[in-house]
Structure formats: C-alpha cells, structure tokens
Amino acid sequence: MTVEGERSLDGEGPVPIGRPELVDRADLYGAGGSIGRMSPPARSPRIEIPRWVQLVGLPLLLVFAWVVASAAAHVVFLFIVASLIALLLDTPVRGLQRLHIPRPVAVAFVYLSFVAALVLVIASVATVAVSQTKTAASRFNDYFTHPHPPTGQTSADRDVDRLQRWLDSHHLRSIHVQKPGHRLVRQIRQRDVGKYTHRIVNFVEGAAISIGKTLFSIVLVLVMSIYMLLGLPKLRRSVDRRFPPRIGEHSLVLRIEHALASYVRGQAALSLIIGLSAGVGLWAFGATGLLPQGQRYALLFGGWVAITEIIPYLGPWLGAIPPFLYALVVHPVSAVWVALLFLVIHQAEGHVVVPQVMGNALRLHPLLVIFGLAAGAEIYGLPGALLALPLLASGRAVWEFFVDRIVLEPWSGTEVEPLAGVELVEPPPAAGVGK
Fold it and tell me: Degrees (nearest 5) of the Cα angle 310, 315, 316?
C-alpha cells in the first residue's frame, strides 16, 4: 500500500508531523497571513491500494466483515446506534466547550438533558395514549350497548336506521341495510363488547410498560455512547493528522456529524408538518361535525401520525389506520372524509414536503434511498430500516471525503507523473549541422 504524502509549493521542507493543537500555524505559513518559510500543502495525502490487495485482500475483508456482522448482529446494531448518538450529541458538547466548560462536564450535562427529555416525551405520550384510549374504548362500548330513551335503541341502531332512510330518500330503496345492520349490532352486543374493549385497554397499558423497559435498554446504549463521545476528540485528531482537511473544508468526523444533524432536522420538520396537518384536519372535522368528537382525539391521532412518520414509506399508512378505524366505527361517512384527508396529506407529502425537506437534508438519489431502506429492513427488520437513512447520510459524507484520497493502482500501463519545476530545453544543434 503506497502512501503519497503532502508536498509544499516551494519544496523547502516536509510538513511537520505532530499534534495539530501543538503546531503554530504562524510558524508554518508565516505571520500576518503571508507565505513564510513554508507554503500550505498543495493537496492532501493519498493512499494507493496495490493490485494484490484489490484482488485478494478487499474480498476477504468484505467476507470477514459480513460473517462477523451476521454472527453478532445485535451487538453490531447496538454499537451502530451508540455511534450515531455520540456523533449527534458531539455538536452540543462542543458548543458547551466553547463556554470553557470541561468536556466531561459538558458530556454529563448533555446526556442528562437528553435522557430527561426522552423520559418526559415518552411518559407524556404514554399517559395521553392510555387516557384517551380508555375514553375511546368506553365510547365504543356505549355506542353498541347503551340504550337511549324512549325507544331503547343504541346509537348503532339509530345510525343503521338513518342510513336506510338516506338510501330511501336518494332513490336507493332497492338496497336494504336495515335488517342486516340490526342483526350485526345484536351480534356485536351479544359478544360482550366491554370485554374486548377491556382487553384493548390492557394492551395499551402493557405497551406503556414495555416502553418503560425499552427506555432502560436505551439508557444502556447511551452508556456505551458516552465512552465514544469522550473519545471523539482523540479520534478526530488522529484522522486529521492522517488526512488533514483542505483549506475551507471540514474534517471527516465533522462532516459525518453535519450529515446526521441535517437528517435529524429534516426528519423532525417532516414529522412536525405531517403530524400537525393531520391533527388540525381531524380537529376541523370534529368542529364542523364531519367527524363526531374528532376534536377530542385530534391530539392523540396527530401525535401518532408524527411518530409513525419516522418509519420510511410505511409510516404514513400506519398513521392513518387508527383515525380511519375510529371514524368507521363512529359513522361510515366520516371514514370517507378521514380517508380523503390522509390522501391529500400523503400527496402533499410525496410531491412537496419530502422533496423540499428531506431532499436537501440527505442529498441522495431516490433509488439509493429505496435500496438502503429495503436492505436495512431485510438485514435487521424495522430497526434496520430506521437506521438506513442516517447510515446512508454518514456514508455519503465518508465517500465525499475519501473519494480523491484513496486511489486504486491501475491494472494496465503505468502513469508517470511529471516532475514539478523541470523545464525541457531543446539541445543545441551539433557542429556543422545545417551548414
């Protein structure tokens, strides 16, 4: 493996090797911004990979990495998650360091704030979900079982009669839904709706407990990432010594951090826009009577849509299922309005929101994004799909940094690089020539 080092423009000496923070730039390039004893490097060092490594070493390395990753998939997954968290939190840690706060103190403060915010968000969402699910389950039970005086009919029976009257008034008398509808209501009532709604409530409460257990696992991942975050400055200095960034560009670690931060900002903006649109639309339907009691559950459904938006491709459809089912139970016509609302939201998301928000954040071709999501889901299921986009963003940053720093030795012919500063002079004519 051949290493091509840095060159100076005037060729007066090699570039000093050592810790970057111990090298005075004024000593290298001269004070006052003018060129002193040494000019800045013309280009960064490059690594040339020999042909035998390309033929044997790289394939063996890829096979070995795949075998290890397959045997220890869960450990590799936790390591990747911890690495991404450490790179994301390094930006606020460096911001606190600019305020002359020691790095260990800054790391402790950022992690405590992050964990506290995470616990608060999960606890709030779980509390609202359990509370409103109990309310919805009670309403669902009353819809089929609670009789209204003086007829003694339930709300479900009344809606069946209303639907039949609407069909009769619109010249659709041939469609008979009254008797089959009442029969279906009786069957649902005889099967003890309250028992099933109680099971739903228990499921939601169990899910809240599972979220708490998952939170404990997340804390374990954060502990792993703390050690990574504390060692990032040393890693950054090591990479910068080997591959110093050019004038005006960021180092490799900072490039990855900026790519991940751009992804997080884009995803947060996308979730906020789609969740807010769904919540406001459902609230408006409830206020205008298109979706009975829709304003009471708009916050719950809007939050659910914002959370599921994190899941690529499947998220928008998963977010629409709970409000659609609720509208279908409350009134069939309301389900049509809810379906139209989410259809409009999804069209706006695919043609306006995503290209403007996530397109600028990732800077990746759509086919590469689709392949990454499919590969992540195939390798590690849903968690793999969730990590696909941030890993692709990080990979793009690494590729852009090393694309002209690592070259492959050519397989045919040789490339002769001209020597700098050598001028070809035509030899003088021999004596007697031309006479």
Answer: 120
| More confident: 386 or 423 | 386
Mean pLDDT, residues 220-227 taken together: 84
Rounded Cα–Cα distance for residues 368 and 376 (Å): 12
Q: Residue 78 in 3-state DSSP?
A: helix
Query: Does residue 342 contact residue 278 with C-beta atoms inside 8 Å?
Result: yes
| Element spanning 342, H or E | helix 332-348
| Mean pLDDT of all residues in 343-349 | 86
Radius of gyration of the chain (CA): 32
Following CA atoms 27, 30, 33, 38 in sequence, which dihedral angle do they give, to the nearest 10 degrees? -100
Tokens standing for residue 410 = 């050519």
How would you label 150-182 residue by residue, b for 16+ Cβ within 10 Å and e otherwise?
eeebbbbbebbeebbeebeeeeeeeeeebeebb
Q: Where are the domains of the chain?
A: 72-244, 251-415
Q: Are the beta carbons of 289 and 271 closer than 8 angstroms?
A: no
pLDDT for position 408: 72
Would you call 194 exposed, middle or buried from its count of C-beta atoms within 10 A (0-12, 13-18, 19+)? middle
Residue 291 · residue 285 · CB < 8 Å: yes
Other CB atoms within a 10 A radius of the CB of residue 367 amount to 8
Confidence of residue 109 (pLDDT cuts 50, 70, 90): very high
d(C-alpha 308, C-alpha 349), whole Å: 14
Q: List, as own/partner pairs, every contact residues 283-287 make where C-beta atoms lie below 8 angstroms and the sequence separation is at least 24, other chains included.
A: 285/334, 285/337, 285/338, 285/341
**What mean pLDDT value characterizes the chain?**
74
Rounded distance between C-alpha atoms, residue 81 and residue 173, angstroms: 61
On whether the CB atoms of residues 405 and 45 are closer than 8 A, the answer is: yes
CB environment 98-107: b (16+ within 10 A), e (fewer): eeeeeeeebb
Q: Of 350, 382, 342, whose CA–CA distance to 366 is shortest?
A: 350
